[in-house]
Each structure stands twice: as structure tokens, then as C-alpha cells.
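Shipment paperwork, digital attachment
Item: protein structure file
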Amino acid sequence: MATVPALGHHSAAAKYDASRTLTLNGTVTAFTWRNPHCFLYLDAQTGPYKGRAYVVEMSSAGVLAGAGWSASRIKAGDTIQITVLPARAKGMAAGLCRECQISINGAVTKASAVQ
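Attachment content:
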């Protein structure tokens, strides 16, 4: 009898609250470009997480690349306004990206992170 590994993917609905959105302004501290998901790290400057580090889960590198993104799209020091679905866990400084505006050298670019 042969065995086959089970492949699965977590549900965003289990981790994030799709009934609410949260918009934060902040400064990017890091952007990781990898599969299965890219991650954006920022120091929040507004909202309930002001003064705290905040982690944003994004789509996979392949999906983002298909939407015109690249590993160098966002860099540490960029200012960003990002709308997320907040984490369900109370007090957890994390969210799932829905839309962001990136300010690079004073130029603002709107970008959606396709899910």
C-alpha cells in the first residue's frame, strides 16, 4: 500500500476577521518575499497599535509578481498606509493585507495585494 502526503492550506478566515478592516499608517521595517506568503513588517504610527511592531501577511510571491510586484517593491524606511483584516486573536498585532498605499521618496503608489 502506498501512502501519499496530505497537502493543505490554512484558511484565512480562521486567523483573520473578514467582518472588520483596520487602516494603519507606519514605517516599513522589513518585507520578506517568499512562498507560501510574503510578509510586511512595520512600526505602526496610528490606530490601536500605535508605537508597536505590526506584521502583515500578504499573498504568495508568485501571486504578487503576477500583480506587478517585485521583491524590491517595498523597502525598509518606506512609509505606508495599509488596510488589513485584523487578527482574530485579541491584542495580536497582525493582519491580512487588503490594500496599501506606499510613499517612496514622496511619490504615493496605490497597490493591492491580491489574495
